[in-house]
Design brief:
The chain is α+β, with helices and mostly antiparallel strands. The chain is 21% helix and 37% strand.
Length: 350
């Protein structure tokens, strides 16, 4: 992601306010040619001009959007409004877990000239006169950049004003938790009931074709994962745990997860954890290596690289049986990518 482009995106609302609608005859030929090279099939609804920039209001594959060009004719990026349900689940998870008291104002899918595509979410604190905040997520839903307030401060302020007695379990930050500890009810056991899910017939048929009944020792146990995924948990005859993840909308396989045995844990990840939890007691509960199906392509048209999902547990202070879980993702080399806010689904370690 280019820093210059991200700075431009943070200024986008102000630029849009200064745009003037113009006729196509007033658009330089270099800009028209650049648009023609950018998209094979498109329809222009209107043209706008601002200082040093031309903007085309376009329709591509039935989707409305805007394409931005420099005065020199170079294409900069295009922005397409999208619905939250069509975005990666992790985007909504991050927003819900970190910005109580805020609402989502808009979401755009951005395509830029460098080939980097991403989601741009605008959020705003509920109330009058609050400023817009921007979040940039990659195509998998991982936060890349934001100018929003620190989540810890947001949650502290929100729960201080909306939960003065401290009765919202595990919501307020640590300082508030200590202050209101005596007023809180007994903690609820973090072990929700696992309920099987009935996937589409097309998904079941595809799974049965890929994994014959004779190859299975257990499963599949089907679960819904967020808005857009269905996963089948199974154990093969070699006693290897596997996860087959399907897209809800297309009923196609996106990736397969292999639960690694302890003797197969990746050394770069274990080294990272040893440093991160230096001097602390912890346990690796789960390490899953995800590999994308050969036919699957992300929104940018590229095949995503494999990654590893890790769940680490620690005993909560003052409690013998209560555990705190931390979820992390690592790239194929074992380098840390990001934290996950909650379990993947009801079958995941709670």
């Amino acid at each position: 992601m280019k820093k210059i482009l991200l700075i431009a995106l943070f200024c986008l609302p102000m630029i849009a306010m200064a745009q003037t609608k113009i006729k196509e005859t007033a658009v330089p030929q270099s800009v028209l040619l650049a648009l023609e090279k950018t998209y094979d099939s498109y329809k222009v609804k209107a043209w706008y001009q601002t200082t040093g920039q031309y903007v085309a209001e376009i329709v591509v594959d039935g989707q409305n959007g805007r394409s931005y060009f420099a005065a020199s004719g170079d294409w900069q990026y295009s922005s397409f409004p999208v619905d939250l349900n069509s975005c990666p689940t992790l985007m909504n998870t991050y927003f819900v877990n970190n910005y109580p008291g805020y609402r989502i104002k808009s979401i755009d899918y951005v395509e830029e000239m460098s080939g980097d595509n991403y989601y741009r979410m605008i959020i705003v604190r509920k109330g009058v006169g609050a400023d817009d905040c921007e979040m940039i997520f990659d195509t998998r839903g991982k936060l890349m950049k934001t100018n929003a307030p620190d989540p810890a401060i947001v949650k502290r302020d929100y729960y201080t004003h909306n939960d003065p007695d401290g009765t919202m379990e595990d919501k307020a930050p640590e300082a508030t938790e200590r202050k209101h500890k005596k007023n809180r009810p007994a903690p609820v056991e973090d072990a929700p009931e696992v309920v099987a899910f009935a996937p589409a017939d097309k998904i079941v048929a595809d799974f049965d074709k890929r994994v014959k009944a004779s190859q299975r020792l257990e499963g599949p146990l089907w679960m819904q994962r967020g808005y857009d995924e269905v996963v089948g948990y199974m154990v093969n005859k070699q006693k290897v745990e596997l996860e087959y993840v399907y897209d809800v909308q297309t009923s196609t396989l996106t990736k397969v997860g292999k639960v690694l045995s302890k003797d197969r844990y990746k050394s770069p990840i274990m080294k990272y954890l040893a440093e991160k939890y230096k001097g602390e007691k912890y346990k690796v509960e789960k390490m899953v290596e995800y590999t994308y199906d050969s036919k699957y392509r992300a929104a940018d048209g590229k095949k995503p690289k494999p990654y590893t999902y890790v769940v680490v547990s620690q005993k909560t202070k003052g409690s013998v049986n209560k555990l705190k879980f931390t979820r992390m993702e690592f790239d194929n080399s074992g380098a840390f990518i990001d934290l996950l806010a909650q379990p993947l689904d009801e079958h995941d370690i709670q």
